[in-house]
Design a protein that fits this description.
The protein has 307 residues and is mainly α. The chain contains 14 helices and no strands.
Length: 307
Amino acid sequence: MNRNKGMVLVIIGAVFWGIGGTVAQKLFQHYGVDVNWLVTTRLLIAGVLLLAVQFVGKERSQILGVWKNRRTAIHLIIFGLVGMLGVQYTYMASIKHGNAAVATLLQYLAPVMIIIYLIFRKQSVLARKDLYTVSLALIGCFLLLTNGSISQFSVPSLAIIWGVLSGVALAFYTLYAIPLLKHFDSLVIVGWAMIIGGFALSFIHPPWQINLNSFTIEGYFYLVFVIIFGTMIAFWFYIESLQSLAPKESSLLGSIEPLAAVLTTVFWLKVPFGVFQWIGALCILIMIVYLALNKDKNSAEQALSNS
C-alpha cells in the first residue's frame, strides 16, 4: 500500500511540474507577467509553505538548526542563490523566450552535464552507458532545436541559451545539495533555499510591484497553480514518494515531467512541433528513462559521497 501511495505521489508531482511550466508560459504570453516577479513570488510563497509543512509534520527544530553552524549556513546561502535561484530563473526565462516543452527538455540535459563533470574531475569513469546517454542527448538536442534543418534554428536563440543555462544550474543544484541533504531534511533545505533566492530577487523586482488589473479569474487561477501546484506541491509529493520508493523508481516516474510539458505545450497552447522535433524529444525522454533504469555506483550521488 505504501509503495502504491509513493507511485501515485511521484506521478502527480511530476505532472504538476510539467504542467506548471506550461501554465507559466500562458502567464507570460497572455497576461504579460514579468519573469522576475513570478520567480520572486513563487519562490517566497512556496518556500514558506514547505517550511510550514516541516514545522507541522516533522522535526521542527531543524528549521532554525540549519543556521547554527556557520559553514552550513554559508553553504545553504550559496545553494539558495546559485542553485535554487539559478534553476528557477533560467528555466522561467527559457519559457518566456521560447516555450515550456523546449525549456523542460533542455533542463533535463543536467544528468549529462553531471556525467561529463564527474569524468573530468576523475570522480567517475567513462562507461558505455555514458556514451549512450551523451549520444542520445546530443542527437535529441540537435533535432529538437533545428527540426532537422541545419540552416536555421526552429527555437529562438535566447530560449536555447537560457535552457542550456538551466541545465547547468540544475547540475550545480543537484551536486551542491548532496552534503546538506545528508544532515537535514530536504524540506528544510529546499524551503530555505527558495526563501533565500526569492528574497535576493526581491531587490530587483519586489513581489508587491505588479499591475493585476488585466488579470481575469482565469489568470489568478493560473498564478495559484504555478505557485502552489507547480512548485510547492510538486516538490513536496516527490519528496514524500522517497519514503516508500527507491530513488531509481522516483527518478524514472519523474521523467513524466518533460512528457507532460511537451504534451500540454503542443495540445493546450497549440505550439507547433515538427516531426524531427518529436523525434528529438523522444531521444531525450529515452535518455532520461535509460539513466533512471541504469543508476549505479558511478552516479553523481555515489561519486560525491565517496569523495
